[in-house]
Each structure stands twice: as C-alpha cells, then as structure tokens.
Amino acid sequence: MTARLIMKLRVAEAVPVTPDVLHLRLVHPSRPELPAWTAGAHVDLRLPDGRVRQYSLCGDPADRGCYELAIKRETDGRGGSAWVHGNLRPDATAHVSAPRNTFPIVPEARRHILVAGGIGVTPLLAMARQLAASGADFALHLCARSAAEAPLLQAARAACGRRLTCWFSAEGRRFDPAVIGEGADGTEIYVCGPQRLMDAVRSALTARGWPEAQIHSEHFAPINDETFKPEPFEARIASTGQVLHVPAERSLLDVLRGAGFAMPSSCELGVCGSCECGYRDGLVIHRDVVLPPAKRQDRLMPCVSRARVAVTLDL
Amino acid sequence: MTGPSNPRMVEAFAHPAGAAAAQVPGGATGWSGTLLHIHIAPAASYEMEALSEGRCVAGRGIEGDRYFLGAGTYSPKPDVREVTLIEQEALDALNRNDPPLQEGGLRLLPADHRRNLTVRGVPLNHLVGRRFRVGEVVLRGGRLNFPCRYLEELLGMPVYLPLYNRSGLNCGIERGGIIRPGDAIELVD
C-alpha cells in the first residue's frame, strides 16, 4: 500500500511524434528536481473530473529535472488520452503523482530482452536507457506497423544503437519470439504492448521452456471480463473478528472504507496496485492485472477482486 | 478536486487531550515566537503550496486547505485539524540526525512535512489546552500531532520515529483573521 504525492506539473513541451502519439515533457514549477524513479515506473495522471490514468515514464531515469510521457490517442479508449491530446499543451498544468514501479528491471539478471509493441515502448525505452548507462547486456525488439508509426523510434535508436531490432509489419517483418532463443538462466524478458503481443510472446516462450517467472509484462487497461458475475461474500477482519458483508453490487474496497478502514487507492481498476491488502484464507477471485502470480496466494486488490463465500483479511 | 463538504472538526478544548491539559497549570511562559511559513494543499496527497498570506476561519481552518475543504486524508475522522503547526527546531534536529535514529540527517523542507504552519521559538508541546496568538488570529491547542506512516510513504523518508514526540500541534481557530510569515506568536493565557 503506497501513498504517493500528487504534484501540479507544468507542460514544458508537447510534441507529436507520430500522427497519434503526443510526447510530453513535464517539469516542476518551482523545484529543480522531481521525485526519483527507476526504469519501468509509471505515474498517475489525474483528469479534472477525478479519473486517474497510468502512463509509463519514457525518459532517462538519471534526469531528475523532468518526466517524459508519450501518450497515444486511443479512439476507443476510456477518454483519458483524448483529454490529454486536447488539453496538455505547453504551459498547461498536469496533476501527476510521484512515480511508482510495478515493472522493474531484475537487478541480478545477466541479460535483458525488451519486446515493445507500439506505444508499449515507453517503459522499455526508459529501461534501455538505464541498462545502457550501466553497461548491461540487453536488446530491444520494437514492433510497429511502420517506421512512421513507431513512437519514439529515434529516441530508441539513440539509446540502443545496434541493440535495437525493428519489426515493421508493413515491410512484412513480424516479430518472431523464436529469435529470443531457448530459455537461459540469467536472462529476463520484458514485454509491453497490446495484449495479443504479450500473450503471443508469453505462450511462445513458455512452450520453448522459458520459466514464467523470467517473463515480465505490464498492462494498463481495465479488466474486460464481461461475463464475470459478482456474487456476495463475507470478509472477516483478522485482527478483530469483525465480519463484513460485501453485496454483489459493491466492491470489497468500498465496503472496507464504509467500515472505517482507510484504504489508499488510485485507479480502482485493478491496475495500479495502490490498495493491495493481505489475506489468510478463503478462495479469492483475483481480477486485477498487477499482482504477480506468486503474490496472489496471500495478497489481493480489494478494488476489483472478490472471494467465493468468504475471505479473512489481514487487517 | 473535492468541493467543500462538511468537515467534522472537534473543538480543540473539547478534545480529551485539550480538555485535560486545560485543567493543569504550567508550561513555558514569557516566550515569543515567529511564524516562518504557511502551507496548504488543495486535496489529499497533493503537494503543499506556500502562501504569503493565509485566511483563518474559526471552526474551519485555513481557506483553501484540504482540511478546510473536508478533502484531507483524515477528513472523514472527526478530530482537531483546523490548523497544524510544527517547530522549525524539530526540523533542525532531524536535519542534524539528533538523536541519531538513522544513517544521516533528514532534510524535511517546509513544503514537505504537511503541517500548515512552520514556527520558530514556540514551545508547541506546552500548548495543549492553551490559547495563543499568531498575528491577529487566536488558536487553541487541541492535541499533540502524531507522525503517520502515510507521511513516510508520501515522502519516501523514514520520518516516523524521528518525528515522534516533536511532530507538532493540532489546533482549533478561536478567532479568525489573516496570518502572514513574520507574524509574532505569543501566549494569550
């Protein structure tokens, strides 16, 4: 559970880098340095109506003077990117949280393979910069329809040099996970992009014997399991024995707050990881996209996750 | 941002700490302090913003502050939170790592500690159950402030233990008015 400072940052630059991607440079109006971050981190962007959207930082983690975001206009999205494209011009104010990293580089790895699909390049570009600066062994595979539609291609070339391989489908080159080779100790894979790319890479690599734990991905989109039908359940508070009834139409987070628990939260979509909570027993229906499988045995995200019949919470 | 709601403030001398302290004589007298900085935040978790002038409203707080607006992290919990103060001397002690609770000193800037007023020369721990003046405004000490993990998380700094017992004072506003950095602070009774 992490509370993060929210800052009113100034848009220093807003440059379209492809027809539908806006590259933003944000600075603090009075402080020369922003809170530190590591590659893979994202910030929350707060829209005027209270909605919150997550965007990965794509700049250089060593540069404390600004945050860089690249935001694609999603025509069928939830409205966040349309607001950004319509409103974040130079000198506009953006309400941005301090960064948080749920997609970190594995520090002890010997080799890092980054696979980016379209706008998914943002956290991986920051990783490439950090890895290049530390002299690490890495490669970036960048997938897009064409060079003209590949966001931050120039920046990726500058950061990676010969470590960059481009896969442009308009030129008949589609990324083949086989180029990564067999599972190797000390090699970590980081994938970010459309769900189908992440699924394809994950299934191709696991079929070739790569352990799940060496494949990392991040995904900012709401959960879309429309067939899910919420059922009521009971939540027991371990410290007091209190039992809370969670009706089908309310979230566990909402019920906990109603009972006086101060639970931090941000996206309330199961993507940001803010409201993480421990549990002891019960059959939990995990519906978030942020908790790694290993943590799901005793942690849950009460904003979207529920339980079958009953669960005991470490509160 | 959350609009004005109905913040549930506890009157300072109705708080159990303030009420008990008001019955016990003692505490430092004859001191004279200064208001160094005024800070407010528009909503929970938002960075604090410095003011050159703050309007204090009796029973509410500092105009524009999250606790005035009922939009603070702890607003849902009834408490004494109209104005919070901290001693510059406590921040100086953190900065010199005194007592040595961690590797080195902690530099907590006036915009970072999330109390509204940074003051010098004011024995805040003596002012629970007392009335004191900040410029034209009269405050009532309601209870000692207590460090929270939330602040540690926001700052990414281990301030919880270092701030213990010198975390400042939560006050109610008896008489409202305008305050400015540089205002004199003194005991009323």
From TrEMBL, chain A:
Residues 4-106 form the FAD-binding FR-type domain. Keywords: 2Fe-2S, Flavoprotein, Iron, Iron-sulfur, Metal-binding, Oxidoreductase. Gene3D superfamilies: 3.10.20.30, Nucleotide-binding domain of ferredoxin-NADP reductase (FNR) module, Translation factors. One of its GO terms (molecular function) is oxidoreductase activity. It comes from the Bacteria. Residues 233-315 form the 2Fe-2S ferredoxin-type domain. PROSITE patterns: 2FE2S_FER_1, 2FE2S_FER_2, FAD_FR. The keyword Metal-binding applies. This is Phthalate 4,5-dioxygenase oxygenase reductase subunit. It comes from Methylobacterium gregans.
Automatic annotation (TrEMBL), chain B:
InterPro entries: MoCF_Sase_C, MOSC_domain, Pyrv_Knase-like_insert_dom_sf. It holds the Pfam family MOSC. Residues 49-188 form the MOSC domain. One of its GO terms (molecular function) is molybdenum ion binding. It comes from the Bacteria. Transmembrane segments: none annotated. PANTHER family: METAL-SULFUR CLUSTER BIOSYNTHESIS PROTEINS YUAD-RELATED, MOSC DOMAIN-CONTAINING PROTEIN. This is MOSC domain-containing protein.
